[in-house]
Amino acid sequence: MKMYSKGALISGFVIFIISVSGGLMVSQNTSAKNTIIPSHITAINYFENEYGLTFGRIEDLKSVEILPDLIYAGSVDGIAGYVMKTDYLSETTRTAPLFDVDGKTIIGSIFVGGKKTNYPKNRNGQTYGSAVEATSPETEPQLIEAIGVDGTEGYVLKKDLDGEQPSTPEEAIALQNSRAADGRDIPLYDLDGENVIGVFHVGGK
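RESULT FIELD:
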């Protein structure tokens, strides 16, 4: 089970293993059998190819719902490579085909880490699980798996982990200056998110 340990905060995203020099795990110029159904979602900075499929980068993405049909994942011999949205959102870690911009021609392969878009809920209706499997920080569960300072396994609230969020550059500077150099402690909860069973340390050494 993937968990946070003391001070180790890891955001889970797709793991790309691409050899730009052409040494991909699979390299071929054949037509893919898969058929992609256009999402018909037009997001800022997304373009459409000749088949009506959206494509682009997702560095600043904050919502799974507006992912493009083809997600940029690097280049092969100067050709931009894209992974299908369905492959990107797969909960299974596996090797997926890498397409050119038309979404039809396979130009290589890519290793995609498993992710979750639907976490289970506890009896209080809170989502829980590993943040490593989230598609972005915004899709992390409300209760995140963690290991306390004494080795106790439990969950921390995402809102506690994130801490106070500044709304202006001035607030950000003030918050940064007010934070203790050795980090801070937050409660470690059981699955129900009610009973405190330990302490989790954020930041510091």
